[in-house]
Amino acid sequence: MKIGIPKESLDGETRVALVPSMVGLITKQNHEVCVAAGAGEGSSFSDQAYEKAGAKCVKDNKTIFGESDVTIKVQPLTKDEAGQLKNGSIYIGYMAPFYQKEVLDILNKKKVTAFAMEFIPRITRAQSMDSLSSMATVSGYKAVLLAAAHLGKFFPLLMTAAGTVPPANVFILGAGVAGLQAIATAKRLGAKVEAFDPRIAVKEQVESLGAMFVEMEMPEDAETEGGYAKAQSDEFLKKEQEAIAARLPRIDVVITTAQIFGKAAPVLITEEMVKLMPQGSIIMDLAAEQGGNCELTEAGKTVEKHGVTIMGILNLPATLPVHASQMYSKNITNLFKNTFTKEDASLDFEDEITKGACICRDGEIVNDMVKNVLYPEGAK
Ligand code: NAD
């Protein structure tokens, strides 16, 4: 098969779906890899490096989309890109399918089989393909560095001839993959860290990283079978807000990562609560794209409200493009190996991962969750 890697078209996207060191894993299976010129330049991988690794560099994305049997991307396809895909080909990458009805229509018209990275089942066997986790690792790390760079204070305890500086107080809300990495990074920088997550299993993980788990009355049955958090009741969220509010007057940096898969992020910090924070403190909201965990977050912007800086930076993985691309690429090659066990393009939909990640196939949406959200009346 001809495997195509286009240059990402979204503004500010620096990642590439396949790095040169992993080209060989695909050509080894007797496939040809074609990369659009400049696809790796945002992540410091030159066209020459791709060619040396055995890929063919082609002039533009149009050739990649129009001629590839399998197109692999990072960001979801735009309508224009979907329209250029070869009929009956395969797409692998993020899809954001709940928000991309028109793109899915185009894919179905072209009988494209499309796999969404965010729908890879979160089972043990799929961990090496789980790009949500690898990108969350990047985000959690980078969020702390950006907050530390912005804060007008040291993170560590310092005892100097010019006086003693107490450590910064960092509060992490949501201790999934991003939150745990944020805890680890803030601890390495010497901050005093506390964290909360409604999934009880998280307490031990938080404590094992040397942070304090904030005790609250926990909801019963907070977790789905897949390990995700369920949406919490309004009553629980109100109690959670009260517990958070009690801590905010002495917190220097809050990093929020709370998300509910396929839904808007829960509001954990209201405007009234922001007013309780010290002047010069920071909220870094990693859920900005899903509406934000803070009521005052503006997606894609850094704003100052009531003396507090609220950072709603989007696409943090793109700010660490070399390793983010390497990790994504590793997830992709593992998925590729699992999807194409034979040299031809035949797919095994009995496989839990292949079936779980597939959104469109044979001209229709095959994922029930996506179908129900996009066509609640059952029109398709
Ligand atoms: P996520 O990005 O969907 O959510 C981030 C965190 O927000 C989660 O820990 C969630 O519990 C938390 N959260 C939700 N509502 C909250 C609230 N009201 N207040 C505070 N926090 C709230 O989740 P994620 O980080 O991608 O993954 C979550 C978990 O999924 C992991 O910790 C793990 O248990 C599981 N997982 C399993 C595998 C696997 O292969 N088995 C892979 C990845 C993740």
Architecture overview:
The chain folds into two domains: 2-129 and 320-374, NAD(P)-binding Rossmann-like Domain (Rossmann fold, 3-Layer(aba) Sandwich); 136-319, NAD(P)-binding Rossmann-like Domain (Rossmann fold), CATH 3.40.50.720. The protein has helices spanning 23-27, 47-52, 61-67, 79-84, 101-109, 131-150, 177-188, 202-208, 234-247, 271-274, 321-339, 352-357, 368-374; strands at 2-5, 32-36, 56-58, 70-72, 90-93, 113-116, 158-160, 163-165, 169-173, 192-196, 212-213, 253-256, 282-285, 302-305, 308-311, 358-361, 364-365. The strands form three sheets. The chain has an eight-stranded mixed sheet. The model has no long low-confidence stretch (mean pLDDT 95). The protein has 380 residues and is an alpha/beta fold. Bound molecules: nicotinamide-adenine-dinucleotide (NAD). The site of nicotinamide-adenine-dinucleotide has 31 residues, from helix 6 and helix 7. Nicotinamide-adenine-dinucleotide is lined by residues 122-124, 127, 130, 132-133, 136, 173-179, 196-199, 227-229, 232, 240, 257-261, 266, 268.
Chain-wise SSE layout:
Blueprint: E1 2-5, H1 23-27, E2 32-36, H2 47-52, E3 56-58, H3 61-67, E4 70-72, H4 79-84, E5 90-93, H5 101-109, E6 113-116, H6 131-150, E7 158-160, E8 163-165, E9 169-173, H7 177-188, E10 192-196, H8 202-208, E11 212-213, H9 234-247, E12 253-256, H10 271-274, E13 282-285, E14 302-305, E15 308-311, H11 321-339, H12 352-357, E16 358-361, E17 364-365, H13 368-374
Parallel strand pairs: 1-2, 1-4, 2-3, 4-5, 5-6, 9-10, 9-12, 10-11, 12-13, 13-15
Antiparallel strand pairs: 6-16, 7-8, 14-15, 16-17
The structure holds nicotinamide-adenine-dinucleotide.
